[in-house]
User: Which sequence fits this backbone?
């Protein structure tokens, strides 16, 4: 089985299905800025067996999805097997972050500390829901808890120091 080290890559979307007969694909964007696809020249498609370097030839938007055309493919048969494959970019090609912004991919591994200074545990995963992201935290007792990424709960995320400061809302640790 093919394995990929993605530390230097960021996922910007997931292929949902082919679109039309000319090799286009519908992509569910996982980036906060779907317009960024207009500036993508090169992306990487992670299949079960390999990493494909693809060149974007066209970008359209339909509802909440992005329709991409790649220079490498011209027929629906060429892209039928890409269902649920991740589209990645090099971290160097990622969008510029503003002050206080961070990539969700960088949060796992951060230590979570309460606003009282008590160590709660470590972020193990990030779930992306419709309303807001959720940090999956393994407490120091080995229990898994979910913290919503909202201003009332997550006070600060310091990727450089691998630290998340959180306010413990009632019921979060129960």
Assistant:
């Amino acid at each position: 089985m093919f394995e990929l080290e993605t530390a230097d890559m960021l996922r910007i979307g997931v292929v949902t299905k082919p679109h039309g007969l000319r090799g286009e694909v519908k992509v569910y964007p996982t980036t906060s800025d779907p317009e960024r696809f207009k500036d993508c020249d090169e992306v990487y498609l992670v299949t079960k067996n390999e990493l494909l370097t693809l060149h974007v030839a066209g970008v359209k938007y339909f509802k909440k999805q992005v329709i991409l055309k790649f220079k490498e493919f011209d027929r629906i048969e060429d892209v039928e097997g890409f269902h649920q494959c991740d589209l990645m970019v090099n971290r160097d090609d990622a969008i510029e972050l503003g002050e206080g912004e961070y990539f969700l991919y960088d949060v796992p591994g951060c230590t979570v500390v309460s606003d009282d200074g008590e160590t709660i545990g470590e972020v193990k995963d990030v779930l992306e829901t419709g309303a807001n992201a959720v940090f999956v935290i393994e407490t120091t007792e080995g229990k898994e808890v979910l913290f919503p990424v909202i201003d009332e709960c997550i006070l600060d995320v310091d990727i450089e120091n691998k630290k998340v400061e959180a306010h413990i809302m009632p019921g979060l640790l129960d």
In short: The first strand starts at residue 9 and ends at 19. The CA atoms of residues 16 and 83 lie 5 Å apart.
